[in-house]
Structure formats: C-alpha cells, structure tokens
C-alpha cells in the first residue's frame, strides 16, 4: 500500500506536499487504530480526526433515500437540512467494515452512542462529534469496538497520525488516499489537506466515499460550505455518477484558522477565499483522481474530456455517459481503440450535436473526424494504451462548453471483487 | 444454438407456437444466407423477410444522435419523423457483422444501394424495402455482399425460412431468438411472430437490438404503430435502459392481413385490436426476455419487480436502477443475497419512499422488512440461486404503482466478450 500523490491538474498551480494529508494543516491531530470492526487484528478499522478547538465545519452528504444512520446523525449536528450542512465541530470518527446503513433505530442509537464515547474521551459535547461509517449495508453495528478503540485512538492522536487514519478508513481500496497543498495569501502560508476512501466509485451505485478535509485558514462555516460545494462539484462529482447518492457518502471539511489566529475570516469573493478555493479544489481533485485510479479491479485511470458542447449541461451529460459506458471501459481494459463505442455513448447522452461535426481522439490519436473513421496506426495506439492514464477527447463541434470526468477501465477483477464482497 | 421459447407471462394467456417465428404469420417468407459480411463461410450473415404484397408497416427506431445510415434510410421510407414511423413496405433486409454506423454519405449510399438490390430481386420499388444493419460501428459497409447474397436469399425464400433468418441477424447472441403466438377474434385465427437479435443489451449502451415482427391480422399502418409502441414499451424498453438509443436499434412490424383478406382493418380500441395488442406484447416480451437471458456473459435471467411505488415514474425508476446496478448484478453472479445493494440502488433511484417502509425479497425469501435486515437461511438462498431465473421483489410501501424490468447477471464473461470485440 502506498500513498497516492498526483500532479494533476498542474494548471491549479499548487505542488502537493510530500506525505501530506489530513493532519498537514495546523490545529489537527489524527489516529488510526484496530478497534475490532474487522476480524484481522492487523487491519486498522477506526480513524479519529480531532481539532484543537471546536472549529467551523462544512459537509456534503449523500441524498440517498436509504441514507445511513451516521449520515443522519452528522447532518443533524450541522443544521439538519439537505444541501445546507455547516456549523461547528471538534472531531470526526470514522469506522470501516460496517456502514451502519439500513439499521433502523438501533443504528441511530449506535451512531449517537459513538459520538458520546468520543465526547467522553475528548471532554467535549457529543454534538461536536461527527460520525461516518463505511462497509457492508444492513448489518447491525456494535458500539463495543468504539468503547475499546476510541480511548486507544485518543492516546495515539498526533500530527503524524494522518496516514494511519487514511489507512483505517479503507474498504476495498488498494491504496490509502491522502494529499495536501499549501498556498500563500494575506502574508501567511495556509494548508489544505485531506484523506478519502472509495475505490468502488466507478459505477453509479458503488459510491461509498468518505473524505475528511482540514485547513488552517480562517473561514466561517457558511463560507466554508460554499467552498466545499464548489470543490466537490469539480472533483468527487466528476468521478462518480452519484457521489451524492450512496447510502454513506460523506465529505467533511474543518477549518481551524490556526495558521493565522489573529486574521479575520476570509470574506466570500475575496482574493484569499479564491486562493483557498483553488487549493481545496486541487486537494479534492487529487483525492478524486486517486479514487478513480483505484477503481475496483481497475488497471487504468481514464480521463474523458468533452469540448465543443452547445451547453454546459450537454458537456456534462456527454462526459458522464462516455465515462460510465461499460463498453468503453471494457474496450480500454482490452487496449482496444474502439471509438465507435465512444460515438454511440455520445449519441445516446442527450447532448445535441451533428454527428458530421464530431471529432474523437484516443490518447492523442485522431480516430474519428467529421463523424467518420480516421485511419490510425493500431500498433501506435497499442503502445499508447500502455500508459497508466488513458485520455479520451471528444469535440462535439456544437459550441464552446467543456467538461471532464474521471473513471477507470472495467476488468475481470471488478467482477471478482464484487461477486463475493460479503464472503 | 437453440431457439428460445419462453412461458412468460402466463397471464397474457397465449401459448407460444412451437418453432414459431417471423414466418409463422400468413403472407410472409424469409431466408438467411451467408453473403460474405463475415469471414466464416458457415455463418449466416444476411436475412431477408418478404411480404407477398406491400403491406402496412410500423417501426420504432433509435433516437441516438449517432444513428446509423440504415436507420436514416428506413425512417425516411416510413415518414421521416422520429416517433412517427409507419407506412407501407414489402421487405426487410438485415445484415450482421457491420452496423453501417458513423459511415457518412458513403454509408447512406450503401443503405440505398441495398434497398435497390432487393427491389431488383423482388421486382418492387426501392422505397418498399426497409434496411437494418448490426455489428461494428465506424467501418465502411460494402455493397458487394448484398449483390451476391440477395439473389441467393430470394431463391431460398420460404415459410420455413424464419429460423435461418433469426440466425443470420445474430452478433454476440449465443441463441437465435424467435417466437410466435396465435389469437382468435372476429371469427378468425390470427398469428403474430417475430425474430430479434441483441445480447449486449444489459448495459445502457449495448442496445444494438433489431427485431422484425409480422402478423396476418388486418391493421392499418397508423393503428399498427400505436400497437407497436405499446408493445415495445412493455417489453424491449423494459430490458435496456436505452433500447431506443443505440446507433442501430430497429423494430419493424408488418401486417399482411392474409389470415382474413376480406375483413375490415381492426379499429383502434376495438376488442380485436386489444387482442392483437396482447398477442403482440407477448411476442415482444418473449423476445425481450430472451435477450436479457442471453445477455453478454450472462448465466441468469434477472427479473426485478417493484411494487408499492408512489407513482408510475417512481416504479419505473426504481426497477431500472436496480436492474442496471452492476453491484446487484455481480452479487447475483456470485450467488450472494446481498440485499443492501438493492436497498442502495432503490435509495439513489430518485423514487420517493421512507426506508422504514421498504420490503425486499430475493427469490421469494424475505431478506428485508421495514428497511431492516430480516434473518434468512443462507443455505436456502444459495439453493434458490441455482434457478435459471432470479426474481427480485421490492415493495416501497409508498403507493400502488408497479413496474418490472429484465436484466441478467454480470460475469467475467461479459468482460471477456467486450474487452476484445473487434479482435
């Protein structure tokens, strides 16, 4: 298992901090422990992220009607309304191995009990503790492992605990996902970092992603929420069809302000806020691309770029339809430059265009021009398919809008992983 | 390769005619030949279905923006407007191996040239010949094989040629798909039959289905079109997410009236018309279920029944989302009664319901009640998974609307088939 570092997108201009993660920003500590949710005693299965002080916090939660107990509990703490989740928090506790979803009133009791256990250990209010769970759906979650694990995690909390925390939230992930960037504004250096889990995100209903993000910039909760929504739209929402709709999807961002305790909070639309938004977006993109790259059974990260769309919605629909096409994804697994499948996906996406105006490139090779096959060197295409990242470009010739989506190829291993996930 | 016969749905009440197909109705002949679209000389690759006389004909075509040349050519012959395709036709010619899609003006010339070749052989007008193609996208289709194949097929035309025709339109299908039923009304016995191809229909963009249907009932073209739309909505549209949106999807229905030449055409809303609609729907369902059962790499037919939905749209959305869930489909491949994946799919479908009101059964075993796990016998579940058809029932507890969708499981073979389709 290695930590994923990503250089994309260079255009945002922030170098990733080597080894950066959820504890890179000042004012945060974290730990990952084996609490007992999983049988293997060597596998970390509970993460705790703690702010020195209660701090402004924003979150984006799933809209799934079957949403999990921890989502309901955390959403209530941050205002209760779907789409308007922000307030104050001190800690985030995450367990893996059990999603505490479809568990009814008993599940809510466990989610609330978990917050109480953490509040006891940290000597804070239970309302200041956010909870998240990931794993199998429909199985009762026990409170006992928290009773053992939380004191152990509290004792281990440190500025170096981010990587353990990132490992503790993994399910079918094959690598831990964490990154961080720094940016300078208002005469100070600020940091944004985070960790995420989610490797089953390639397909719509596999999106059980959890991300915990931290920053030491001074930002009020409502402003923080605006920044988070923008960043999530440009990153996690570009990987999954419905990152906002699995039972447990949760993305939490806490702002300690610890890098400049005396500075006034960044105002909306200020230069400082825009710099923060760019840095946050880069962190989210890094984590989102790491998820796509680590897609269940994936051998390739796939980037789908749509240009020339008549509207932003058309660009989005076209990119999403291509990125979700099992035929396109299996063709890439088979190193097959079968652009006809891309054309068919574009055609059924609902985007408006004339097929005679469409151009398609695979890894920079023109394979379709004016809606027609363009002769290309199959051997050269095979060579380019050896790259880790496969880039598909389609221009619809209908306007000036563009969109990008990330996905991965669809391989035998995807079936193997999912045919017997419970066993 | 065997012909699929299906007993579902018994409630429609028409027994399938043994060995029935596209030539079961009076007034039609058919043939299947090897014309040379495929390299293997033993593989039939061109089908011709001919009516004794020009007869009322209705069709449903793809709405894909990248629609193929034969779709454009056939749609023009039947009125030109999307969604309003009916008129008069004498013959349908179908080739497999090449979709003649994304082939530009040259592709249109070949489609028109094909109609002219058939018109020559049958001594009819080229406008009376409908064309359909299925196979790989973006490769020029040659006219020469038609010049060889059409005279050969014309010479072989017979009332017994339906099965050869059904074989000739197969691509990745593993079985030919044909069926027919008879019904009595107005003192006469009438027959509806047809053939279809399409095994890659499980996933949204794999819907390259072609169906040719015939009847000897007397029905005018506009009425025929209404019946066809109803039947397609209840059958082919319940198998694929977008059966109307691949590049080549085509469903053609011809009515010879030959079973009762002196009878007036069935009027809309007459008892005779309703009987015809039921019979047609049963034929389409038989073919649609055969497609799902023959899904690429499939080992099981999967039926998803939704009840208790608040609206018809909710029922449809819930059924479709479950049927298209790769997680549900891989779980079935793994004989895993993982109902949490069904719950998650229901939750993100957009259907309105309270999770506390949801019941889920897998093969008749209650696995979820009131949104909570229901203990069940895993060994018994495994036994029931041995059946060829897996039935999933979900009641949303929110109303009285229901919907059914058909799909198949998602296996390793799906990947193997699609990773190197072109090679």
Task: Give me some keywords for this one.
423 residues; alpha+beta; L-amino peptidase D-ALA esterase/amidase; Ubiquitin-like (UB roll); 6-stranded mixed sheet; disordered N terminus
Overview of the structural elements:
2 copies of one chain form a homodimer. Chain A has 423 residues and is of the alpha+beta class. Chain A folds into 2 domains: 10-292, L-amino peptidase D-ALA esterase/amidase (4-Layer Sandwich), CATH 3.60.70.12; 301-419, ArgJ beta chain, C-terminal domain (Ubiquitin-like (UB roll), Roll). Helix content of chain A is 30%, strand content 26%. Chain A has 11 helices and 14 strands. Chain A has helices spanning 69-77, 104-122, 144-156, 162-168, 221-233, 271-293, 312-323, 326-333, 339-348, 378-384, 412-419; strands spanning 28-33, 46-61, 85-98, 129-136, 177-185, 188-197, 210-215, 250-255, 301-309, 359-362, 365-369, 372-373, 389-395, 401-408. In chain A, the strands form 2 sheets. In chain A, strands 1, 2, 3, 4, 5, 6, 7 and 8 form an 8-stranded mixed sheet that branches. In chain A, β5 and β6 form a beta hairpin. In chain A, α1 packs across α2 (104-122) and α5 crosses α6. The longest helix of chain A is centred in the middle third of the chain and has 23 residues, at 271-293. The radius of gyration of chain A is 22 Å and the shape is globular. The two termini of chain A are 22 Å apart. In chain A, 63% of the residues are buried. At the A-B interface, α8, α9, β12 and α11 of A face α8, α9, β12 and α11 of B.
């Amino acid at each position: 298992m290695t930590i994923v570092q990503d250089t994309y997108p260079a255009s945002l201009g922030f170098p990733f901090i080597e080894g950066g993660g959820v504890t890179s920003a000042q004012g945060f500590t974290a730990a990952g422990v084996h609490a007992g949710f999983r049988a293997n005693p060597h596998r970390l299965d509970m993460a705790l992220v703690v702010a020195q002080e209660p701090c402004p916090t924003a979150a984006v939660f799933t809209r799934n009607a079957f949403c999990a107990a921890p989502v309901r509990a955390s959403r209530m703490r941050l205002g209760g309304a779907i789409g308007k989740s922000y307030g104050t928090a001190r800690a985030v506790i995450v367990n893996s191995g059990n999603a505490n979803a479809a568990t009814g009133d008993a599940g809510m009791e466990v989610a609330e009990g978990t917050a109480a256990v953490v509040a006891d250990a940290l000597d804070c209010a239970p309302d200041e503790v956010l909870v998240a769970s990931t794993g199998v759906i429909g199985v009762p979650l026990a409170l006992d492992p928290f009773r053992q694990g939380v004191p152990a995690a509290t004792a281990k909390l440190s500025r170096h605990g981010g990587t353990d925390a990132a490992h503790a939230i993994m399910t079918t992930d094959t690598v831990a996902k964490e990154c961080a960037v720094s940016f300078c504004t208002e005469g100070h250096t600020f940091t944004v970092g985070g960790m995420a889990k989610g490797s089953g995100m390639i397909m719509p209903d596999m999106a059980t992603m959890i991300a915990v993000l931290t920053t030491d910039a001074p930002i009020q909760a409502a402003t923080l929420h605006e920044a988070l929504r923008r960043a999530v739209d440009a990153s996690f929402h570009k990987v999954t069809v419905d990152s906002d709709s699995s039972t447990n999807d949760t993305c939490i961002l806490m702002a300690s302000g610890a890098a400049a305790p005396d500075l006034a909070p960044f105002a909306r639309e200020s230069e400082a806020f825009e710099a923060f938004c760019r840095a946050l977006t880069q962190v989210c993109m890094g984590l989102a691309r790491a998820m796509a790259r680590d897609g269940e059974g994936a051998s390739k990260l796939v980037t789908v770029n749509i240009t020339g769309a008549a509207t932003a919605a058309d660009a989005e629909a076209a990119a999403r339809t291509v990125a979700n096409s099992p035929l396109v994804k299996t063709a890439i697994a088979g190193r097959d430059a079968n652009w006809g499948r891309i054309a068919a996906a574009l055609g059924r996406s609902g985007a408006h265009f004339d097929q005679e105006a469409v151009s398609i490139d695979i890894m920079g090779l023109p394979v379709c021009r004016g809606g027609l096959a363009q002769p290309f060197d199959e051997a050269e295409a095979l060579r380019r398919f050896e790259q880790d990242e496969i880039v598909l470009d389609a221009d619809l010739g209908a306007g000036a809008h563009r969109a990008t989506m990330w996905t991965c190829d669809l391989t035998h291993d995807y079936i193997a992983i999912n045919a017997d996930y419970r066993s």
